[in-house]
Design a protein that fits this description.
Blueprint (H helix, E strand, L loop, with lengths): L1 E7 L5 E7 L2 E7 L9 E6 L6 H17 L3 E5 L11 H15 L6 H26 L5 E9 L2 H10 L3 E8 L5 H7 L6 E6 L7 H10 L5 E6 L8 H15 L1
Parallel strand pairs: 4-5, 4-6, 6-7, 7-8, 8-9
Antiparallel strand pairs: 1-2, 2-3, 3-5
Helix pairs in contact: 2-3, 3-4
Length: 246
């Protein structure tokens, strides 16, 4: 991993872009973080829309986390942003769009083709990012994961012991096989659900929450569409991380 740029934002937050084995990423550290007082780390998950497009939302989430004393980091997902196009996933996305525009049910074959290859490739890359980030003197564990794609969060929570708590965003299609992996998740969870999310199967989201093996799990459901998450829901997620990572 090598850093390619560095800037101090107006609130003191340090934003550094990096490259990890040709994978772009961003690390944000609060002004209070140092070798003598390292900050716990939260990994910021995001949809496969590209870091450049997602940057304003990710930076705002990083600012909110920094106010609570957390460092945050994210990486570009496979096939997104400046990374090479992934033909198989592009085809699956096109199939999904066609089915939704036609008002047809999205079958398991489309969901599996869209999500499972992404999970299989992205999760080891997130683990490699942890390998590179945690040795930095201003960063420490425990580590949290926040955001989507929810299937990536499920796999990470199930297989990566350095992830101690997770905030997951219900709002993307989930392959049936991920429900079995959800039963293997035992860390504390805080799941956000927008009740009227037009792109989400509400009952599937409720079934997934029920499947999680965690004894400490909370479902925070709010009225409204995909982008209508109220500020107090974000505040509750922040309090969750403060309880479990500090």
């Amino acid at each position: 991993m090598h850093f390619t740029s560095e800037q101090r934002l107006d609130d003191g937050l340090l934003e550094r872009e990096f490259i990890l084995d040709e994978i772009p990423g961003i690390l944000w550290t609060p002004p209070t973080a140092s070798a003598s007082a390292p900050a716990p780390l939260i990994l910021l998950g995001h949809p496969p829309l590209g870091l450049r497009k997602m940057h304003p939302r990710l930076a705002e989430r990083a600012r909110q986390a920094a106010a609570d004393g957390f460092a945050t980091a994210t990486i570009e997902l496979p096939g997104s942003g400046d990374r090479p196009c992934w033909a198989a996933v592009e085809q699956a996305r096109a199939d999904l769009r066609r089915a939704m525009e036609a008002g047809e049910p999205v079958d398991d074959e489309i969901i599996d083709a869209l999500v499972l290859p992404l999970v299989d490739k992205a999760v080891p890359e997130w683990q490699a990012a942890l390998d590179a980030l945690l040795p930095l003197p201003e960063i420490s564990g425990p580590v949290g994961y926040s955001g989507g794609v929810i299937s990536i969060g499920i796999r990470l929570a199930a297989v990566e012991p350095r992830i101690s708590a997770a905030v997951l965003f219900a709002g993307s299609v989930v392959p049936r096989t991920m429900f079995e992996q959800a039963r293997q998740v035992t860390i504390p969870l805080h799941v956000l659900l927008q009740w009227d999310d037009e792109g989400n199967d509400r009952q599937a989201a409720l079934n997934l929450f029920d499947a999680f093996g965690s004894k400490d799990k909370t479902l925070h459901a709010n009225m409204g569409g995909h982008t209508g998450v109220p500020q107090f829901a974000g505040d509750a997620a922040a309090q969750f991380f403060t309880r479990h990572l500090k």
